[in-house]
Amino acid sequence: MRSFERQFLARSIERGGQLFAANCSECHGLDGRGLTGAAPALNNPQLFGHDYLAPIRAEMEQLQAEREIEGLDEARAAEIDARLQELQAERDAFLAQIQPAIDKGYDPDQPSRLQQVGWGGPQDAFIYTTLVHGRPTSISYWPRPMAAWSQTAGGPLRNDQIQDLVNYIQNWDKGDNWTVEDLLAVNQFAKVPGEGGGAVAEGEEPAGDDVQAIVAALENITGDPVNGQSLYSAQGCAGCHAGGIVGPATEGTWTRIEEERLQDPALAGYTALEYAVESIVHPNQYIVPGFSATMPTYFGERLTVQQIGDLIAYLQSQDQPAE
Ligand code: HEC
Ligand code: HEC
Fold first, then answer.
1. 136 and 148 in contact (C-beta within 8 Å)?
2. Which of 160, 184, 228, 316 has the most CB atoms within 10 Å of its CB?
């Protein structure tokens, strides 16, 4: 049975390799190491969460904790200090070695792509859903966006072909055996949606984070859904909310607010508008079940009240229920 499964997987990976060469390599590179300025590496220790510094970090933390014990023997304290210095030197040497990767955007203290985007599910599901839905609005931070590939989402590939591709990509995972050379071979690291500047022009006031004050100000404002849509791209909202991958799906937001969120006792007394404003300026006040607290908390400083009104008008215009 096991050998049959192995053979089945091997054939799937092989088919995935052919599909990758034909459909994906023009952006991600034939070796999956990404193409500078076009698309991030998938054959990449960061996508698989390999933490090169984990052993050093763990030993340092343990020693630092021991060092703080009151009445610690002096000889032991000296021993710990010496070892900590050694570890610090090892860390510095490693960072110097990987400097070219750091220059390309790698962050050694954020070694996991899935943590970076707040994905709590399994690795293969992250790749699978990305392939099914694409990241249509990654156009706001990449020259060409990642398209939806599955036929269910209007793309060219069948779901079994998507699975072959997932198996092919997963097969790049080296577990604990990723080397420094592998990291240095990455041409392009992934980007974090929503980083970058705000949309408040000179002479305008940011909205701030007082939900009631913003709600009151919105009463005298008509939101412009078209401007809302371009803000939704430019501010990186879409990068997280498209396809419901990192955050709840854009489609159906308003229906969900009215029919699900406001039924939650934790939100008793909220209006839909209050909830929406709070979701934007205080995203961690209420965490949508099934998601984690990864939405940036800076939008109150980066948007005006009018722009928040525009975004909400856009969300209201996207109100088909999610599939
Ligand atoms: C037109 C260029 C292009 C093509 C072709 C393309 N991609 Fe992508 N892909 C991208 C971009 C750009 C991103 C980054 C999107 C983002 O940051 O949200 C991406 C992201 C991804 C991710 C998520 C990586 C991460 O760290 O978030 C996976 C997995 C992926 N692509 C797989 C594939 C596969 C498999 C194919 C072929 C079926 C493919 N891509 C074809 C441009 C492309
Ligand atoms: C880095 C990813 C990320 C970015 C960027 C982001 N969000 Fe979110 N958003 C989330 C996540 C994750 C949640 C669910 C967890 C929570 O409630 O905070 C969420 C929740 C929401 C909700 C509540 C949705 C619901 O179904 O209840 C709204 C509305 C929202 N975001 C709007 C926006 C808008 C507008 C922007 C841009 C100005 C934005 N988000 C940018 C990740 C993001």
1. yes
2. 228
For residue 28, report the distance from its CA to the centre of ligand 1, in Å.
7
Q: Which atom of ligand 1 is nearest to the CA of 46?
A: 26
Ligand nearest to the CA of 315: 2
Instruction: Pull the structure tokens for residue 33.
Output: 């190491």
Residues in Cβ contact with 178 at an 8 Å cutoff, skipping those fewer than 6 apart: 45, 48, 50, 52
Provide mean pLDDT across the span 68-91.
95
Per-residue pLDDT at 138 exceeds 80: no
Distance CA 269, CA 35 (A): 50
| 165 vs 155: CA distance, rounded Å | 14
What digits encode the pLDDT tens for the residues 56-68?
999 999 999 999 9
Burial of residue 219, with CB atoms counted within 10 A of its CB: 0-12 exposed, 13-18 middle, 19 or more buried: exposed
For residues 321 and 22, what is the distance between their CA atoms, to the nearest angstrom? 34
What is the residue whose two structure tokens read 């404002």?
221
Contact 38, 143 (CB under 8 A): yes
Confidence grade of residue 323 (pLDDT, cut at 50, 70, 90):
very low
Task: Name the closest ligand to CA 229.
Answer: 2
Residue pLDDT, tens place only, 230-263 = 899 888 888 888 878 789 999 999 999 999 999 9
CB 119 within 8 A of CB 130: no
